[in-house]
From TrEMBL, chain A:
This is ABC transporter ATP-binding protein. Pfam families: ABC_tran (PF00005), BCA_ABC_TP_C (PF12399). InterPro entries: AAA+_ATPase, ABC_AA/LPS_Transport, ABC_transporter-like_ATP-bd, ABC_transporter-like_CS, BCA_ABC_TP_C, P-loop_NTPase. Residues 2-246 form the ABC transporter domain. The keyword ATP-binding applies. GO terms for molecular function: ATP binding. The keyword Transferase does not apply.
Automatic annotation (TrEMBL), chain B:
The chain crosses the membrane at residues 6-29, 36-53, 59-83, 95-118, 138-162, 191-212, 224-252, 259-279, 313-331, 338-356, 362-381, 393-416, 473-492, 523-544, 565-586, 598-618. It is a multi-pass membrane protein. This is ABC transporter permease. The keyword Isomerase does not apply. It comes from Microvirga puerhi.
From TrEMBL, chain C:
The keyword Transport applies. This is ABC transporter ATP-binding protein. It holds the Pfam family ABC_tran. The lineage of its organism: Bacteria, Pseudomonadati, Pseudomonadota, Alphaproteobacteria, Hyphomicrobiales. GO terms for molecular function: ATP binding. InterPro entries: AAA+_ATPase, ABC_transporter-like_ATP-bd, ABC_transporter-like_CS, BCAA_Transport_ATP-bd_LivF, P-loop_NTPase. Residues 2-233 form the ABC transporter domain. Keywords: Amino-acid transport, ATP-binding, Nucleotide-binding, Transport. SUPFAM superfamilies: P-loop containing nucleoside triphosphate hydrolases (SSF52540).
Length: 251, 644, 233
């Protein structure tokens, strides 16, 4: 589905990615873990087109997309969520979703965008998306008044509204309490199933990682340390050393 | 020989500018306030020194003492303004603090006129500095050497304080995170006050020391203002080292201008500046690892975004609009000619402001050179009407629209690709200045005097002919045209495109990841905005019957900004409300020479301090407070039910 | 040492804290647990008078801080490490630590080398700028900066957020060592119960801006209802 080879990226003198290659299969959930500063977020930025790599190639479904802009990648089926949720703070939950739906409609057909108000179809669809992310009771609340967890859910919602083929999620449960975390895992598992999504994510919480991932890649200082299933990763001595440490009690 | 002399002169100019720019850099670096009034404080410094030593200072010492005294006077003024104005500005958005300092500029200029009058004075250099120093064939005026020495000295002092001392570390910590600085025990308010005082002392002293270099008049504020800003931008905002290098570069460019383009003084700077901004939008010395993403952000506040769907109670809005238009339409029957004239101007300015707010309030782009598009349209229509070419007026207007759109496309295509935030602002400002200077030195366009006696046209539609020759007829035409434009813009902004713009204004990265091509939409907004600004110019030319280069000046560019922010950029109709209020103030204070600036500046300042968010923002703020309260109650109830 | 009584805090019209009472004794280490939005961060900021509008008594060593501004509270011995870290981007790591000595006021702060010894991860980074650090490194800098003035009480707001498990362990060890060695009290707001348990002796649970439980970890363990109701674990 998505593949990258030999990605290098540096910010000035500091090189952040040193030859990363990976290959995510269709409908796989692929998790990147690693200590802070390992380059996980930078890798995400390169894969999604937010920043260009210094060298290396990215392909998506066989097409070379290395030089495509982020929006062009979105048109090809990328959906992206951020560590700190990016939603439109001054717009309501409904408007946030409507804007996403209209953005998708714009790629397909022009018709529904000729009238000023969002069409009834788009509105119904928006309410349906809000229901999926359990925000149907907060449709008119401006996003800046939402709690942290709700905001992350809304972000997931507007991303799903784009009907992506691959979902790129940077720390989907960051800053969430255990209860919110479980709810988010449920939603992700659910939508993955319903929409047949391929998912790539970064995450720190090993609980979340173990519940979601098919395969895991461990990074450190911009390099790949190991790739494999959860148990393979847990066995790996290098990974224990730099990331997991001794298993931590009930955290 | 001539080259050496030009470059030496350039260096002197550069150092003079640095002396003024240092204060702007200090204040921006710390308080994040771009102090537009700084040039006026420089002027006040010069006048204070002039009051102390008169026109013929007989010794260098007297000049220096006078400069220090005027530095002290300005420092005291700084202390006062810090407590009364700057401190409050820290809590409101960048854009609004910009208007506040513009208001200060108006007040200062008014006060200067009232105290010192409008006459020119010229102060000679003291004897010791009046001569020249000879080096073989090369001679350097002593006074220039004096200025260069002062510039270098000031730089060294600031450089050591900011970059080499522990004070500098405190200053840098506060500059980037005042909240956290407070938490590590730094008394930020005191440091702010000290920086403001230091900046004002510098500018007061600069006013005194540079006094012998120029003719003293209430226009002095302008002579260093723009250059200082350029220097500050080139250097990377808030960076003393950058400002110093920038000042030297700018001075040398001025020198080179004298050699290569003696006919159009001052134009080369802008051309080079534009090239520079496209090459390095973040200045010469962006801080190591600086968060350029933050800098590239927009100046627009994200707090209020305009509505992007038609209001639910459409009937009410229709009634209100019809009522407003009818009142305006009835004016030629009862208003006096002077008032009618002002209202006509206000309508055009309102359209100009609407077009500016399409960029600022919707697309999140801040431009400082919007008047350039206006002037383009005004000169285009004015010139062709005077030529009596016989081209139908409506064709002329449409052509001005197209001309504006094309120009905006070319400018935007390059500018939006490379710059955003303040860099884009300064780039557009420079383009405006280039246009103004080009007009200023074009005899065909009437140079300084502009085009006067522009005839009012007839509109021949075959079946009916409208003669717009009379004031009354043209007023109605103007009203109709402005209403149509406003309505067209409104329907654009409340449709799907408006929603896209508001999305990318709030978070361009999120917009990009919604699959919205951010650059293309920004360009679209830029083109529409430029086209409408040019149309506004085209509409105004036959109303005023005169077009002057002032139409393109940066002072005119500030007008749509002031109108928009005064009314509230978060509302589509904000710019119109602002234009109405501004014109009202202007009309009411028009007879009070000097005082009028003080009064309108004062009112503006009060509004900004009392109502950041604009006049319309005041109303919605009360509404929102209720909303927040209700929301909070509701969420508490939710939580409780969940737990229970 | 630190006493909070009847603390009410507001953001705009929103009433966030409702009469919070809480104490941290000298060298005492205390956790505040609660869900997102329960008021943990507001509590931390309120104690420093750094944001919310506050009403109520906050005393340090018996002296009422009344409406003292944050910089003075910092100087009298309260040190807040905010959840978003906020290392100064344009200062080096070393200067980030040194500048915090301003908060030592009349007391003497710690020696920077001592602090760096406790955070070995920072040693190779001292010349880097704050903006060149990763999230985890910034967190270390923020905590190290927090202890530099040798505060009477260190307030840590969700320090483990976004940290790798192995770094969480390092941080816990360094923190306990520093607090023990220099008699620093600790008020810790956390979501990570392992970390909170490792670092502190007592626990408060906050929900909707009210303290709903306080006691030792043993008492906490004997109340599964509390755990379930307020933390959903």
């Amino acid at each position: 589905m998505i593949e990258c080879t030999n990605i290098y990226k540096n910010y000035g003198a500091i090189s952040v990615l040193k030859g990363i290659s990976l290959n995510v299969a269709e409908q796989e959930t692929f998790t990147v873990i690693g200590p802070n500063g390992a380059g996980k977020t930078t890798l995400f930025k390169v894969l999604t087109g937010e920043i260009p790599a210094n060298s290396g190639t990215v392909t998506f479904k066989g097409e070379d997309i290395t030089r495509l802009s982020a929006s062009a990648r979105v048109h090809r089926g990328f959906g992206r969520t951020f560590q700190v949720a990016r939603v439109l703070p001054s717009n309501s939950v409904l408007e946030n979703i409507v804007i996403a739906l209209e953005a998708r409609a714009r790629q397909i057909e022009r018709g529904p965008l000729r009238q000023l108000r969002p069409t009834g179809r788009i509105k119904d669809e928006a309410v349906e998306v809000a229901r999926r992310i359990s925000l149907a009771n907060k449709l008119d609340v401006p996003a800046r008044f939402l709690s942290h967890g709700d905001r992350k859910r809304l972000e997931l919602g507007i991303t799903l509204a784009l009907k992506p083929k691959i979902l790129m999620m940077d720390e989907p449960t960051a800053g969430m309490s255990p209860s919110d975390r479980n709810a988010t895992i449920d939603i992700i598992l659910h939508v993955k199933d319903e929409d047949c999504l391929t998912i790539m994510l970064t995450e720190h919480d090993m609980d979340v990682v173990s519940q979601l991932s098919d395969r895991i890649m461990v990074m450190n200082y911009g390099e790949t340390i190991a790739v494999g299933t959860l148990s393979e990763i847990r066995e790996n001595a290098a990974v224990r050393d730099i990331y997991l440490g001794e298993e931590i009690g009930d955290a | 020989m001539q080259i050496g002399f030009a470059l030496f002169n350039g260096l002197t100019v550069g150092m003079s500018i640095f002396l003024v720019a240092a204060g702007i850099t200090l204040i921006f670096g710390m308080l994040k306030i771009l102090n537009i009034a700084h040039g006026s404080f420089f002027m006040i410094g010069a006048y204070v020194a002039y009051s102390i030593i008169g026109t013929d200072p007989d010794s260098t010492w007297k000049l220096v003492v006078a400069a220090i005294l005027s530095g002290l006077v300005l420092a005291a003024l700084g202390l006062l303004l810090n407590a009364s104005v700057f401190q409050r500005l820290r809590n409101i958005g960048e854009a609004y603090s910009l208007i506040a300092t513009f208001a200060l500029l108006m007040i200062c200029n008014g006060v200067t006129k009232i105290i010192w009058g409008v006459n020119y004075h010229s102060v000679s250099a003291p004897d010791a500095l009046a001569g020249a120093v000879m080096y073989g064939r090369f001679f350097a005026p002593s006074y220039s050497l004096f200025i260069i020495g002062l510039g270098v000295l000031t730089f060294l002092v600031l450089e050591i304080v900011v970059h080499r001392s522990s004070v500098g570390k405190v200053v840098r910590a506060i500059a980037h995170d005042p909240w956290m600085a407070n938490l590590v025990g730094i008394n930020t308010s005191r440091i702010y006050a000290l920086v403001v005082i230091a900046a004002f002392f510098c500018v007061g002293m600069a006013g005194g020391l540079l006094l012998p270099n120029q003719s003293l008049s209430p226009l002095l504020f302008e002579s260093y203002l723009l250059q200082s800003f350029i220097v500050v931008i080139i250097g990377g905002l808030g960076n003393i080292r950058g400002a110093f290098v920038g000042a030297i570069m700018l001075g040398l460019t001025e020198g080179a201008n004298f050699l290569v383009l003696p006919d159009i003084p001052g134009i080369l700077v802008y051309i080079i500046l534009i090239g520079f901004l496209l090459w390095r939008p973040y200045g010469l010395f962006p801080q190591p690892g600086a968060d350029t993403a933050g800098q590239a952000g927009s100046l627009a506040e994200t707090e209020d975004v305009p509505a992007t769907t038609p209001p639910k109670a459409l009937l009410g809005s229709v009634v209100a609009t019809v009522l407003a238009v009818s009142v305006l339409a009835s004016m030629p029957f009862w208003a006096n000619a002077g008032f009618l004239f002002i209202i006509g101007f206000a309508m055009v300015e309102a359209v100009l402001a609407l077009s500016w707010n399409l960029l600022f309030g919707y697309a999140g782009l801040t431009t400082f050179g919007h008047a350039a598009f206006f002037a383009l349209g005004a000169y285009f229509v004015g010139f062709l009407l005077r030529q009596e070419t016989g081209i139908p007026f409506l064709v002329l207007l449409s052509s001005s629209l197209v001309l504006g759109a094309l120009t905006a496309f070319f400018v935007g295509f390059i500018a939006i690709r490379r710059t955003s935030g303040i860099a884009l602002g300064i780039l557009t400002l420079s383009l405006g200045e280039i246009l103004r200077r080009a007009i200023n030195y074009s005899p065909a366009l009437g140079s300084d005097d502009g085009l006067s006696g522009i005839p009012r046209p007839r509109i021949d539609l075959g079946l009916i002919v409208f003669d717009l020759g009379s004031e009354r007829a043209y007023f109605w035409f103007l009203l109709a045209a402005c209403s149509v434009v406003a309505l067209a813009l409104w329907s654009f902004t409340v449709g799907p495109k408006g929603r896209v713009l508001v999305a990318l204004r709030q978070d361009p990265i999120r917009a990009e990841f919604l699959g919205i091509n951010v650059r293309r939409y920004r360009l679209t907004a830029f083109v529409i905005s430029g086209a409408i600004a040019a149309l506004a110019g085209g509409l105004q030319a036959p109303w005023a019957q005169i077009v002057t280069p002032e139409a393109a000046s940066y002072l005119h560019s500030t007008q749509p900004m002031l109108n928009t922010l005064l009314g509230g950029s978060g509302f589509f109709w904000g710019p119109i409300v602002g234009s109405a209020i501004f014109s009202g103030i202007n009309y009411a204070t028009r007879t009070l020479a000097g005082l009028s600036e003080v009064v309108s500046g004062g009112i503006l300042l009060l509004i900004v301090l009392a109502a950041p968010g604009g006049v319309l923002g005041l109303g919605s703020r009360f509404g929102r407070m209720k909303h927040v309260g209700a929301l909070h109650k509701r969420s508490t109830v939710n939580e409780l039910t969940r737990i229970g | 040492m630190l006493e909070v009584a009847g603390l009410n805090a507001f953001y705009g019209d929103s009433h966030i804290l409702h009469g919070v009472d809480l104490t941290v004794d000298t060298s005492d280490r205390v956790s505040v647990l609660g869900r997102n939005g329960s008021g943990k961060t507001t509590l931390m900021k309120s104690i420093l008078n750094a944001g919310p509008r506050i009403y109520g008594r906050i005393c340090l060593d018996g002296a009422d801080l009344a409406d003292e501004p944050s910089f003075q509270r910092a100087r009298s011995g309260l040190s807040l490490v905010p959840e978003d870290r906020r290392s100064f981007p344009h200062l080096t790591v070393r200067d980030n630590l040194l500048i915090a000595l301003t908060a030592a006021g009349k007391r003497t702060g710690l020696d920077i080398e001592q602090v760096l010894d406790t955070f070995p991860m920072l040693k190779p980074l001292t010349a880097r700028y704050g903006s060149q650090l990763s999230g985890g490194q910034q967190q270390m800098v923020a905590v190290a900066r927090g202890v530099m003035p040798r505060p009477r009480c260190l307030l840590l707001d969700e320090p483990t957020e976004g940290l790798a498990p192995v770094i969480v362990r390092q941080l816990a060890a360094s923190l306990v060592r520093l607090c023990d060695e220099f008699n620093i009290g600790l008020l810790l707001s956390e979501q990570n119960i392992w970390f909170a348990r490792f670092c502190t002796q007592r626990v408060y649970i906050i929900e909707n801006g009210r303290i709903v439980f306080s006691g030792s970890w043993d008492e906490f363990d004997s109340r599964p209802d509390v755990k379930h109701l307020y933390l959903a674990v």
